[in-house]
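Write out the 3D structure for:
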Amino acid sequence: MSKIVKKKFKIEGMYCTACAMNIDFDLEDIGVKSAKTNYAKQESEVEFDEEKLNPDNIIDTIKKTGYMAVLVG
């Protein structure tokens, strides 16, 4: 049984909307249900199955994409 949760991450280092799209694509590649990264707000709302992924997986993926991230809620 899956446990879908929604978490918000503060992102640093995005310079354009393409940056946000790259983050969304990379998060989807690791299996998140949805990723909505907002360049203007410098944040990302991510829905994922807590039994398969955790916030550290999300942060690591964002770092590998080239940006800094912290969990904010």
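Residues 16 and 39 are 6 Å apart (CA to CA).
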